[in-house]
Amino acid sequence: MRSKRGWTAPCIALLTFALAACSAPEAIPDFRYYRLAPAASVAALPAPLLEQPLVVENFRADGVHGERPILYANDGDSIKVSQYHYQLWNDPPPVMVQRRLQELLSQARVSAYVTDRLSGRVPAYHLTGTVYRFERVLVEGKSTEVVLGVRLRLQADGAAMPLVERDELVRAPVSGDSVEDSAIALSNAVDQVARRLITALQQRKPSA
Q1: Which CATH number fits domain 43-203: 3.40.50.300, 3.40.50.720, 2.60.40.10, 3.40.50.10610?
Q2: Best CA proximity match to 127, nearest among 156, 167, 92
Q3: What is the predicted pLDDT for the residue at 27?
Q4: Please, what is the end-to-end C-alpha distance for the chain in angstroms?
Q5: Which pairs with CB-CB distance under 8 Å and at least 24 residues apart come from 172-176?
Q6: H-run or E-run covering 192
Q7: pLDDT value, residue 205
Q8: SS3 assignment, position 84
Q9: What SS3 state is found at 74?
């Protein structure tokens, strides 16, 4: 028969192993960062629509729409949105939308010079924007669409009224259930906003 003393060492070793297992930290999931997909090509206009430089100012967003964690809603018209903990945008949504519009408006030659900064001594048009929707929609765990909402205002220096003021709400379908699929769909939504803005500029009535 084994003595009590003979059981002591194995029991202590087992207890030490159990305590170590309990105190071991849980594995932290990898953070994943997403950026917008490459912009769709936009045909250059025959001639610039604006006679002065265009400054695409820094866009803004209120609350969680200005933060990097990716947002999702369980209904396209839900008043509730949630954040992912480990899946983030590479840059805040207002920054991504502003840079994307600057790229596309420059590509379309809306103005001979499109930039994000310019001396205040140079007369120019200024495009400002506020992002109020930028999320994917999940219904029963399946991605159904993405929603982008942005308010745009284009105004010339010294002008009393804006040249263009628009509230764009775009709902774009997604091709799959992954976050990457939603990032591609949101990229397409921003491209659609750019095309709508260009069309609005083309259709505006000349000032008297």
Answers
A1: 3.40.50.10610
A2: 156
A3: 65
A4: 110
A5: 172/145, 172/146, 172/147, 172/148, 173/144, 173/145, 174/136, 174/143, 174/144, 174/145, 174/146, 176/143
A6: helix 179-203
A7: 61
A8: strand
A9: coil
Q: How far apart are alpha carbons 49 and 13 in whole angstroms?
A: 80
3-class DSSP state of 173: strand
* CA 185 distance to own-chain centroid: 11
pTM of the model: 0.84
Tokens of 190: 């921003």
Tokens of 49: 């629509």
Q: How far apart are CA 167 and CA 148, in angstroms?
A: 11
pLDDT score, position 4: 52
Q: What is the pLDDT of residue 23?
A: 54
Tell me, rounded to whole angstroms, the distance of Cα 18 from its chain centroid: 46
pLDDT at 204: 84
Nearest alpha-carbon partner for 146 in 95, 192, 102: 192
For residue 153, which amino acid is it? R
Q: Which pLDDT value is given to residue 141?
A: 86
Name the stretches of the chain with pLDDT < 70: 1-27, 205-208
How much is the CA Rg of the chain, to the nearest whole Å? 26
User: Which residue, 207, 114, 208, is CA-closest to 163?
Assistant: 207
Q: Which residue has the tokens 């194995």?
A: 10
pLDDT in the model for residue 208: 39
Query: CA dihedral defined by 9, 10, 15, 16, rounded to 10 degrees?
Result: 70
